[in-house]
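Lab notebook: predicted structure, single chain.

Context: the supervisor wants predicted structures on file for every construct in the current expression panel, including those that have not yet been purified. This is the next one on the list. No modifications to the sequence; it matches the entry in the shared construct table.
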Amino acid sequence: MKTSRTNNSAIENIPRYQQVKDYILDRINSGAWQPGMKIDTEAELVTATGVSRMTVNRALRELTVEGRLTRIQGSGTFVAEKKPQSALFEIHSIAQEIRKRGGKYSCEIHTLQEEKARPNLARAMLLAPYTTIYHSIIVHKDNGVPIQLSSRFINPKIAPDYLKQDFTTITPNEYLLSLAPITSVEHVIEALIAEPWIRHILEINSSEPCLALHRKTWVGEVIATCSTFYYPGSRYTLGGHFTPPSAGSIGIS
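Prediction complete. Output recorded below exactly as produced.
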């Protein structure tokens, strides 16, 4: 009985939202709720756990940020799939990544147009201010779920026919690599809360962080692209490996 009283006391000291999280995690870890499976609704969780809807909502939000759940607006809450890992140092097609791991690739084109490079962007690409550049914004999906939003600025000298391409049949990366080999790459990564328009396209809430990969590529001495790729923190990880090809030098693999 002494052990029982101690256990009951310990449970009572656990915050109620944490008890709800433990309830959900128990079902995930036991295999009762499999990756990709839709879990109980908030109302059903309220009935099952005996707490308020606000408490349940907090537990769901925290588990989403932690990457254990995925919440899709208008569809419900699902057990998160194991997060795929994007190669940090490699430059390759996200469509190939998705298909390689058995997913179904699709995309939506939000912007594909000619623009004038604002001073900051022009400086980053070593162009005169308001030089004509090409801009594409495309969301890439795995089984209908957005996993990457790419905002890419392109130097027309490298890809003069960029705006004429059908990027539902070939990714921008595949097309650009078919024109000229990349000779140098610069990567910068940051974690951030994305702007509202990015969150809307990626179908994430205002509390979910994103991983932002800023990439600049060169073809010879010309800066070919200046891009940012946004990944929902609960759906994707970034990783990489590089090996010095010889003493005193470092290569991108």
